[in-house]
Amino acid sequence: MHPELSFEEVQTGRYVAEQLDAMGVRYQAGIAGTGLVATVKGKNPKKRTIALRADMDALPIFEINEVSYKSQNEGVMHACGHDVHTASLLGTIHILQNMRNQFEGSVKCIFQPGEEKFPGGASIMIKEGVLENPKPASIFGQHVHPPLEAGMVGVRSGMYMASADELYVTIKGHGGHGAMPQDCIDPVVITAQVIVGLQQVVSRYADPGIPSVLTFGKINSSGGATNIIPNEVCLEGTFRTMDEKWRNEAHKRMKKIATSIAKGLGGECEFVIEKGYPVLFNHEKLTARAKKWMVEYLGAENVADMPLRMTAEDFAFYSHHLPACFYRLGTGNAEKGITAPVHTDIFDIDESALETGIGMMAWLALKELEIK
What residue numbers bound the domain in which 137 lies? Predict the structure, then answer.
């Protein structure tokens, strides 16, 4: 009911801290601003450490659901289910804390801010040492998934989610009267050529075995009208792929193609790439173990194999530092009409999914601690 935007999760962090205090679990607050790390220690706590992660931030969306837990912060909504992630991890901690005399090792529980906003809270928490002292042997994270019915989970080994980079392109020309284009350098026409030319990055240079997407979603000009050619046009887009080497090569090709087209037509091009989240890679051996345990816990009929996704997640940063497994938590219920996708103003979940989310995280943690 009280969602907060990325890196503004002050009350959310305070609430998590209150719950941890009530459970008698020690934690460190103020990581990456509003993040926390709690540690549940079993017997022989230094034997093995694993990590669990939940993100806490919400989205700038006005919720129109009519439910008792509807957002009370106008214009802000947990439309990506991060409240579910945080609630699940708190429930998991409750289970582990009550069982602390029945297992060996320690579980680091990461409550992360800012997943929805570049540079991503994960990257900051890692820089501030969340994976050190001690370093976990592995890490698990989960994400709501409306297409899966509540009571189910989904997982995929290896490449799973794409990298995500933001593109900011400015095409500069020389404006003037639309009836006299011979006296101008038209940045609108140049921009059109640049957009078409850049599609070759995916269609002609990418290896067919490496999924890639290049999309421009926003175009603005410095002015212009039906009879006015503007001085410049600005483009904003995203580039996503599944291979870090190709990602870097694609960046160079995009800049070269755009600047060459603009120069050839008499204009100029400024091409800025904000490098975002990396490719999310689910460690094969860890994910194989996790899937086996998921089947043991829920039954094979409730564990789905997930396809590649060109969406991005900053959990990917963790996967580049230690073995990681990021899986999907089913939250849908078609009979109840709970089918809306994430990032929409009517997103909701079947709350029975919380039982699965909490139990699954606790089960995975306990099983992973047993690995020698």
Answer: 10-161+279-369
Is 104 known to be catalytic? no
Same domain, 31 and 147: yes
Which residue among 27, 160, 277, 327 is the active-site one? 277
The answer as to whether 237 is a domain residue is yes
β-strand pairing of 268-274 with 35-41:
unpaired
Are residues 249 and 145 part of one domain?
no
Which DSSP category does 241 fall into? Answer: E
Is 168 an annotated catalytic residue? Answer: no
Assess if residue 314 is contained within a domain: yes
Q: pTM of this prediction?
A: 0.94
Residues 225 and 146 in one domain: no
Burial letters 62-92, b for 16+ CB under 10 A, else e: ebeeeeeeebeeeebbbbbbbbbbbbbbbbb
CATH, residue 219: 3.30.70.360
CA distances from residue 323 to 50, 138, 160, 207 in whole angstroms, order as listed: 10, 5, 14, 26
Residues linked to residue 26 through DSSP beta bridges, in sequence order = 39
Per-residue pLDDT of the chain (372 residues; tens, 9 = 90+): 999 999 999 999 999 999 999 999 999 999 999 999 999 999 999 999 999 999 999 999 999 999 999 999 999 999 999 999 999 999 999 999 999 999 999 999 999 999 999 999 999 999 999 999 999 999 999 999 999 999 999 999 999 999 999 999 999 999 999 999 999 999 999 999 999 999 999 999 999 999 999 999 999 999 999 999 999 999 999 999 999 999 999 999 999 999 999 999 999 999 999 999 999 999 999 999 999 999 999 999 999 999 999 999 999 999 999 999 999 999 999 999 999 999 999 999 999 999 999 999 999 999 999 997
Closest alpha carbon to 248 in 163, 354, 335: 163
